[in-house]
Amino acid sequence: MAVSRVYRGGRTQIPAQIRRALGIEEGDELVWEIQDETLRVRVRRNPFKRLAGRYSDPKLIYDEVEEKADELIG
To answer: Do the beta carbons of residue 24 and residue 14 sit within 8 Å?
Structure first.
């Protein structure tokens, strides 16, 4: 179990052990949901980071990359 404190303006920090376990990195988004008085937080990966360097084929068409980005952003 990990604990963090809420500061002024609703700011908090994600404990390092949680960030490491879930692979949370700068630029990732957190999606907050309430279900039956329980808070669920999901990680939405930074799509630009996932695409960076992945498509180095000079024949690749921009539309294909854009389509893949849209797919990852969901």
So the answer is: yes
pTM of the model: 0.58
Contact between 33 and 40 (Cβ < 8 Å): yes
Q: What angle do CA 68, 20, 7 make, to 5 degrees?
A: 100
In a domain, 3, yes or no: no
Residue 50: domain span: 8-73
DSSP for 23-37, written as a single string: T--TT-EEEEEEETT
The predicted-structure confidence for 39-72, as pLDDT tens digits, reads as follows 999 998 876 666 666 656 666 677 777 787 888 8
Residue 2, in any domain of the structure: no
